[in-house]
Amino acid sequence: MSRGVLTAVLYCLQFSRELGDAEVERIARTVLDRPFSDLTAEEQYADLEAALATDDWERDLAWQPHDAASVRQFLRRLLARLDALRPWAEPPYRALGLDRWHAYRCGTPLAHVRLRAPSQDVLHARLRTVPDDPHGLRAVVLRLRSGDEVALVAAPLPDGYDAVLLAVAPHRPAAEVTEAFVTHTGCPPDRVTPARRRPRALGGGWRGPLPPGVTPRR
What we know:
Helix content: 25-40%
Largest sheet: 7 strands, antiparallel
Oligomer: single chain
């Protein structure tokens, strides 16, 4: 049993004075709308259900303001609330991991995205360093509620605030996928600029900076 989801839930509760109905609703909506890690709602539910079936984690609660009995009762109520909300809709977006990164590195630029500080920007906080990437690129691959799959890619910090949104063919028209990205992630539209190609007479390629190592196919 993975304790990743349980730990994430406990982290969300550590400053909660009471574990009332409002907290149950808040965490249920987090599970469904802003999934922990790269898990589906069903996977998160299964992890929490498994946590209730064992007590091996209870000795690790010294950092929690809530005792084990209170946490266990909260988890029961949380699972009941999730059951009441079935059937579950797809979340606005979900991270898919970086297994397909190599395809996106050569994908089609859709837009340039200006990020804010990770502490103020949920998408920026989602970026992870690409394993074994020589440039230290950071990326997140997302499945949007619209069904589109995209990657948001940025150079390492402290300079990596100009990200690029990429898709892999076949995909819908760039404007439609970009609109879906803005709609489902809540990214402010004024921070998103469509990617444009240079005219062939000027050498082709893409206008605007791309992170190092991102090499779109022509």
